[in-house]
């Protein structure tokens, strides 16, 4: 389980957060609470939580100072910010500190759990990458090859989260060509066997968070493992990895088609990963194997607004951040939030905020 700490000067607010979180489902545990930033910093140093949920307005060290300190001392921490005020100063500091979410009080349980789920996914990815990184001399003899390998690995994990077999297959093909092109002197020991083992461990960790058992997805896993040896070629190694990943993806897709109830938190998490792409109600419904009418009604009931408005809101928030904080051009901000047509982006932005993106830039200069 990952460890969570809550920092808020109001006892009732800490209690509400503990009641709203799906701690067991997300494999999280609230290990401690703190009443202010000073106590929070001390306890973070002592207990090393993975996720911090913090208020912004507190006596002593407030949220702004706390986020600055955490960014400097504990950059690996996942932070979720809460505030009773829609304050741009607080929002700006939250963005600078790479906070996962800025939640307005009273906190919406769905938004809280979506933010917690995102933190868990990023922690899992970091753990998997770290598991490879510590043993890099045993896999690649040069840093450039290692970094390229890790990029392919992260891409494949992202496709696995989306049960995208085509994406996994295409990236494995690219990894295949990459490994074939490495000079023999850059191979260290049984590199291919270690790569196969690494991808198997990553898959096992992913399966552990799903609704099915490993044996249901890959009944002949031991045979697959026994076939792996130090004498395998690149083609054989990639083929075995692809086989395992396709088996898991197919099993989970089948389970998703046959289950009776849609988990709307999965829908929210999917939107959070893909809002900057050309997703629509139809494409999301197709991904979850339900009708668009059913998805639309379920989303409205669960979230309080329709899905199109929700996606637009997320895109506009991100576009505003990119323009104000990252100083990107309006064209690039549009492209990075899913808008290929900049004229349409201008129209949506002005309708959403009441002013054009160019006026926003002028106001911050």
Q: What features would you describe in this structure?
A:
The structure is a single chain. The chain has 365 residues and is α/β, with parallel strands linked by helices. The protein folds into 3 domains: 2-109, Rossmann fold (3-Layer(aba) Sandwich), CATH 3.40.50.2300; 135-258, no CATH class; 262-365, Arc Repressor Mutant, subunit A (Orthogonal Bundle). The protein has 19 helices and 5 strands. The chain has helices spanning 11-20, 37-47, 63-73, 88-96, 109-133, 136-139, 143-161, 165-180, 191-208, 214-217, 221-227, 234-258, 264-274, 281-287, 292-303, 307-324, 330-336, 342-353, 357-364, and strands at 2-7, 28-34, 51-55, 78-83, 101-104. Strands 2-1-3-4-5 form a 5-stranded parallel sheet, sandwiched between helices.
């Amino acid at each position: 389980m990952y460890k969570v700490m809550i920092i808020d000067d109001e006892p009732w607010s800490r209690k509400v957060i503990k009641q709203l979180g799906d701690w067991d489902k997300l494999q999280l545990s609230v290990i401690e609470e703190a009443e202010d930033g000073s106590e929070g910093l001390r306890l973070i140093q002592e207990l090393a939580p993975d996720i911090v949920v913090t208020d912004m307005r507190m006596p002593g060290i407030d949220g702004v100072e706390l986020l600055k300190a955490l960014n400097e001392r504990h950059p690996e921490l996942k932070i979720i910010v809460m505030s009773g005020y829609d304050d741009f100063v607080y929002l700006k500091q939250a963005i600078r500190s790479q906070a996962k979410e800025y939640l307005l009080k009273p906190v919406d349980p769905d938004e809280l759990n979506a933010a917690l789920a995102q933190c868990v996914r990023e922690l899992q990815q970091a753990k998997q990458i770290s598991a490879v990184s510590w043993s890099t001399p045993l896999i690649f003899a040069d840093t450039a090859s290692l970094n390229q390998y890790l990029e392919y690995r992260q891409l494949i994990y992202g496709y696995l989260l989306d049960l995208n077999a085509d994406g996994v297959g295409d990236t494995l093909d690219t990894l295949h060509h990459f490994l074939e092109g490495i000079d023999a002197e850059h191979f260290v020991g049984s590199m291919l066997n270690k790569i196969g083992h690494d991808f198997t461990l990553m898959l096992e960790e992913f399966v552990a968070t799903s609704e099915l058992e490993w044996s249901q997805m890959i009944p002949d896993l031991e045979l697959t493992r026994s076939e792996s040896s130090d004498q395998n070629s690149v083609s054989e190694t990639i083929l075995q990895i692809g086989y395992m990943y396709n088996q898991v993806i197919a099993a989970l897709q089948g389970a998703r088609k046959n289950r009776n109830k849609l988990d709307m938190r999965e829908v929210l998490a999917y939107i959070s990963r893909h809002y900057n792409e050309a997703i629509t109600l139809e494409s999301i419904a197709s991904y979850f194997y339900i009708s668009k009418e059913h998805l639309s009604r379920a989303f409205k009931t669960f979230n309080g607004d329709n899905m199109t408005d929700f996606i637009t809101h997320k895109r506009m928030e991100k576009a505003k951040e990119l323009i104000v904080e990252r100083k990107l051009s309006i064209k690039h901000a549009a492209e990075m939030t899913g808008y290929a047509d900049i004229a349409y982006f201008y129209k949506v932005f002005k309708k959403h905020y009441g002013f054009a993106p160019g006026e926003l830039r002028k106001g911050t200069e």
